[in-house]
Amino acid sequence: MMERLGRRLRIGVIGGGAGSFIGPVHRIAARLDGKYDLVAAALSSDPRRAAEEGRRLGFAPERVYGSWRELLAREAGREDGIDVVAVMTPNDSHFEICMAALDAGLHILCDKPLSTDVSSARELAARVRTAGAEFCVTYCYSGYPMVRQARDMVRAGELGEIRQVQLQYVQGNLAEPGPSSGWRMQGGRVGGSLVLLDIATHAFHLGAYVTGQDIASLCADVGATRPGGEVDDYVATLMRYANGARGSLWVTNAAAGSEHGLSFRIHGDLGGLEWHQEEPNRLLHRRAGGFDQVLTRRLDPAMSPGALRSTRVALGHPEGYLEAFANLYDEFAEVVAARLKGDRPPAEADLFPGVLDGVKGLLIVEAAARSARSGAWERVEAP
Amino acid sequence: MMERLGRRLRIGVIGGGAGSFIGPVHRIAARLDGKYDLVAAALSSDPRRAAEEGRRLGFAPERVYGSWRELLAREAGREDGIDVVAVMTPNDSHFEICMAALDAGLHILCDKPLSTDVSSARELAARVRTAGAEFCVTYCYSGYPMVRQARDMVRAGELGEIRQVQLQYVQGNLAEPGPSSGWRMQGGRVGGSLVLLDIATHAFHLGAYVTGQDIASLCADVGATRPGGEVDDYVATLMRYANGARGSLWVTNAAAGSEHGLSFRIHGDLGGLEWHQEEPNRLLHRRAGGFDQVLTRRLDPAMSPGALRSTRVALGHPEGYLEAFANLYDEFAEVVAARLKGDRPPAEADLFPGVLDGVKGLLIVEAAARSARSGAWERVEAP
Amino acid sequence: MMERLGRRLRIGVIGGGAGSFIGPVHRIAARLDGKYDLVAAALSSDPRRAAEEGRRLGFAPERVYGSWRELLAREAGREDGIDVVAVMTPNDSHFEICMAALDAGLHILCDKPLSTDVSSARELAARVRTAGAEFCVTYCYSGYPMVRQARDMVRAGELGEIRQVQLQYVQGNLAEPGPSSGWRMQGGRVGGSLVLLDIATHAFHLGAYVTGQDIASLCADVGATRPGGEVDDYVATLMRYANGARGSLWVTNAAAGSEHGLSFRIHGDLGGLEWHQEEPNRLLHRRAGGFDQVLTRRLDPAMSPGALRSTRVALGHPEGYLEAFANLYDEFAEVVAARLKGDRPPAEADLFPGVLDGVKGLLIVEAAARSARSGAWERVEAP
Amino acid sequence: MMERLGRRLRIGVIGGGAGSFIGPVHRIAARLDGKYDLVAAALSSDPRRAAEEGRRLGFAPERVYGSWRELLAREAGREDGIDVVAVMTPNDSHFEICMAALDAGLHILCDKPLSTDVSSARELAARVRTAGAEFCVTYCYSGYPMVRQARDMVRAGELGEIRQVQLQYVQGNLAEPGPSSGWRMQGGRVGGSLVLLDIATHAFHLGAYVTGQDIASLCADVGATRPGGEVDDYVATLMRYANGARGSLWVTNAAAGSEHGLSFRIHGDLGGLEWHQEEPNRLLHRRAGGFDQVLTRRLDPAMSPGALRSTRVALGHPEGYLEAFANLYDEFAEVVAARLKGDRPPAEADLFPGVLDGVKGLLIVEAAARSARSGAWERVEAP
What we know:
The structure is a homotetramer. Chain A is of the alpha/beta class. Chain A is 36% helix and 22% strand. The longest helix of chain A has 21 residues, at 321-341.
């Protein structure tokens, strides 16, 4: 990065103010590897809260803005204006903000879901292409080294053809006592089915990222399991992948007592892999005709290239969620730096999820909603 | 048992000769708690092999029979003839043997599936009632103490209303190198879809046993995932239980590298339970608003009545598959002894699966096969 | 067994009456594989309780005896008298009973510790030799298949020279609320330091069984950790093995909240093995320069000979404590049958612990007690 | 921090250049929470390598120094000179560098061991006091939230009086194939016994940090287990803590195939706690008379104050080694900021290890070396 560009990238953040879960995550991820200077922020739609929070976080007061529009406009006018903007606002604002940021010539890291419907997502993807911008959708779980290890092993044929997939994302937060959190309970801001847009989309992406296969069709059961539940908190699907592999998925945010519960398990002709986000440094490799191996993250050539690229600390020293998230930032920095220099895209461009992955996410969500209504299998459209 | 009847029960076995997986399991289960004398056997349809095997297993030569018909006929003529017969033959013979054994006035332990189609299963169940016989279908996984602990906790309301269910039975044996095993690869003897009749039926029963809920409807994907596979090796389902709970299931015997992989995970309003057959002495209790507890099998009042009844050894000394299987034998002995004495059925009658559970198993299999053809949700008939 | 002798062995039990933990374990172990007929019992030193308990357990009334002396005398006078006696009485009676049983021409299974002091243990071992008897000390944890797997891997050189050993046996029962159990709290019946004789002796044996190395010298800390504790409940040692390997051990029955906690971890030049009794079907194999492998018990040639010999059920169907205990009975039966036929000792003779292992146990206990007094390293005498 | 001081702290680093394991860790830890600006560096004793590395890491060229002496001298002359210095050089240079940094009026984060002998450590501690400086020894494992949870539970009496302690740190790196790493294999730079100074000191500190008890006396076995090993790679100890609790420890860097293996297990009258660095977000709580609880790190009041203070991300999103390390930096920043403002020390002062902990570490190492020579128990001196 320093080698490529000779300076750090300048980044601004939109959203993620006081009380946000994801705001601190983005900021830590931006700082972790020293490739960005966090220089501008629109932290809240309330200007006074934005200013207070900006001071608390150490932003220069003149670069703490009262709205994202102001941030884009004023930064565009500075010689030392931002190169990159990170968008972490409610779902229904992603499209508008990203379109404006592209107009402002910025590169973008944006939270999932990319948008709340397929057509705006496709429009945004088209605009990214014409703008010549770099774009990362923060499907952050793809940033874990052992997820990349799994993907590399599939690509290298170590499992043979993939035949079976099981995806889970089993959270309990909606079932916990106490008030539920913020804008997610307001249908409008979510932009559709909460469970599909908010968490299932992570699980669907993870499956595709690791297997290299898109879902061709699915049959879904979507609904609310909580008594009096008004938002969707449950989805289970049967799936058929492009290569004919069969899959199933269970995703919920209302399994009382559960923590995070994102996991994948895949099987090919030669064996299987299993990974759990809650113990991310381990990957279980089941081998046909042999004993299980436990692959643990380490900083040596026993790792696959993608895993090694996204590892910071030696064998036995666990890395976690923040490092996985920071991997997307780190890799995105290299790609943006290359773009700014006019260089060819570096190898990192293959690692993080792009705008097309965001579109695919919405296509799956749309097919799942359709199937839940029809009670039948539905085809997932091509992006 | 000794207290009840003053003697051991006399049992004969049909099937389970040389090379059988389940034969030794039944015989160990019958011996383990000292409530049966194994006195008669029809171990093979080849009389010479039957005799050899009988001698090797220590049966008296005059009670080693060359066919199950001979066993039933000759034992009926002895003063010290058998009280109980255990049936462990290929699926397509269960119905005929059991009907004849009922005619001979015997009580029956029979392997799952009860039969290969719904109508014969219903006929058998009706005959059990008119015969006044005791009947156990060896859905053996319901014999584990921690499975009973889970069931008792659900009954006691410790999880609140059950909302979500996930069942898995993920084996790899069909995907292993080497020749596949015996009669199971011959469609006729299986009597239908291998994966549904042979292993999914265990998982479906386990879910019902623990939750106390039957499946009302389901949507299934059934097929062969192995290249060139001629028998069904995969089923995944979406399910709706009688109380409205939603569920999903993944069962296969072709997940390369897998071992046994039977597990359940259920969630109610107050928390969840998770159990894996491969570590059967532990039950994970996730509690809404609290930390997880790991319930471990022990021989003290911290266990529920059903768990305590089926435990032999103290805290920290693992029990396994043979003890679970033996629990069905042990409880069945008490119920048969009470019947022989003309006593009311003892508490053990509630613990082991009966002929009705066998009928329900075939109704679910039948609905799953129907759904796999229709691509839509199908209702599961009442027994 | 049936092949060897043409009949089952006749066995009598001394001790293990109502309220005993180990009595039912022995009886189940004797029944499990169908190689013994349990025909005689001296279950209690109170004749009325002995008779009642005998009836409850299904013994023929005329072979339920009021004392072990009566059992030995009367069985010796029967044509169908017992071949083998199993001794499960308090520690301080083992020596006397076993000597008398040898005089009666019996083969013996005896609980650990063999005796309560080194000299009587040596005397007993000498008498076993002159009597030409078979003898098994039920260090039952050596009966687990994965313990034999570990031992076979060490023998085959798969770990290289053994360099480091860690043994643990961390129970909590003495620290639990409620009354402590029976004769173990009466110093006289234990015959010395409770923690050393009752449980440490299991851990020391396990280490020697797996590594094939005896302890040459040790430095021990022995004492009571419970407030007001009057019996030893804690021992930790530093150890040097015969081959120069270093080891350490932590054994207690007063670690509040603990379950069983027996485990070993060993490392040689090429890797290490770790096993926990509470999950006995798994053996972790750490490999220098490679990933960990999880070896799971199965019924196929991937297992070592010793593991395969002691396995009953296929991959993924857990076995437990009762099966491990039964393995000693099963192997002992083969060795006794060979002896009765005048055949050479079969391969099973190598698998179960013999009288010499019992003597070694007392030598280690004696050295540990000496070291605890001297505060220095002490040599362990040769048997 | 921003609230306290209105600006970030300025920090310089000494050591940690190309090829260092710990250098990147320190720099990430300093960046992670945005409380430091990394502004100065002496990365190598070779000025050309130092300059290259400084550029690669994004330091301003004029603040990349060719030696630590130059860094201290030149930064002292700048108006915007550093507030804090982080020392990550070989062990035998810690004392000299820290003494000079104190002369320069700096606050210090220094790697363990504090020094290589007791007397220089005591001299440094005295100088810290007279200088009125803040000092943190980076016993980094005390930075994990669940370690603080354990400590807080002990302090709150949730375990009752502590009776038993077991510490392990079982690495395999010296036993791996390939060249061993850098200055650690050169006796002079280590300053004594490698295993004692390099890793055992972490384990000893962890035990004291969690239990709140210092070691009063110990008996140690220290040596080389590798064939031809010239550096100590093994230590096992028996220990007595100040409150009478008994303990044992096993630490090695030559257990072939091992990863990190730092763990503690403690038991008091009411239960026990167990923690493994390789799965740091979980703390097992064994409870006398109850079931085990698995305490998992989360961002809510179920956590103890110390755990909550050191947690960044919500339930189910794992944190790791870098976050633990960063906790020390984060807390140290608050304490330095308070000192710079003349405020009273904030609560964070209680959380990170100070110079006295560094002295204690050397006193234990010294006693262990003495005991290894004498073969007897030795007293650990008071600091």
